[in-house]
Amino acid sequence: MPCRLRCSANTSSSAQVKVAVGPVGKLVERAFSVSRKLGPLSTISVVTLPKPLGIVFELSKAGNRRIFVAELIPNGNAERATRVSKLFEGKKTRERNNGRIIYGGAVNVGDLLLATTMVNVEVDLFGLRAPQRVVMFFAAEGRTWTETMGAIQSSFVADGPVTLVLERES
Q1: 147 Cβ contact partners less than 8 Å away, ≥ 6 residues apart
Q2: Fewest Cβ atoms nearer than 10 Å: which of 36, 45, 57, 130?
Q3: Domains of the chain
């Protein structure tokens, strides 16, 4: 999806989102700051999905390294989560309305990818402890296509679900 006029650099503001990170199996919710790209009144959706995600991503043609959701695979995990979230529209959810942040929301075609979780392997310097897989927060801003797709692909199904931080115009 090409960037519209509201994607200009002077419209960005930041928002705090909560994402579960830490050693696999011992995740703790922590707050992270993300920069809004579509204006201060845009909606940020924090979505946690099992793999495979069922999302086709596309690099913006505007040359600004922004990655958008191009397509949802029919009956994929993203499309299923979107259908479920539509059942609860208008119900009390975990959201804030000052430039909304929605947790457990939908994935829509055209959403801008702001961040994702990735899995890294931590190895003890002296090898005294076994290596452990750690879920980390990965901000997509300023990253290349290869880096961002590598972050999304870094986890196994056994590592648990992937969290995506997406932005859409309200």
Answers
A1: none
A2: 130
A3: 11-168 (2.30.42.10)
User: What's the confidence (pLDDT) of residue 140?
Assistant: 92
Closest residue by Cα to residue 137 from 156, 114, 170, 160: 114
Strand 162-168 and strand 43-49: the pairing is antiparallel
- Show the tokens assigned to 72: 């949802």
Give, for 102, the enclosing helix (H) or strand (E).
strand 101-103
Q: What is the DSSP letter of 75?
A: T
CB-based contacts of 157, cutoff 8 Å, min separation 6: 50, 51
pLDDT of residue 7: 34
Out of 8-17, 46-55, 77-86, 92-101, pick the least confident.
92-101
Name the band, by pLDDT with cuts 50, 70 and 90, for residue 99.
low
pLDDT tops 90 at residue 101: no
pTM: 0.84
b/e per residue 28-48 (b: at least 16 CB within 10 A):
eeeeeebebbbbeebbbbbbe
Burial class (CB in 10 A: 0-12, 13-18, 19+), 56: middle
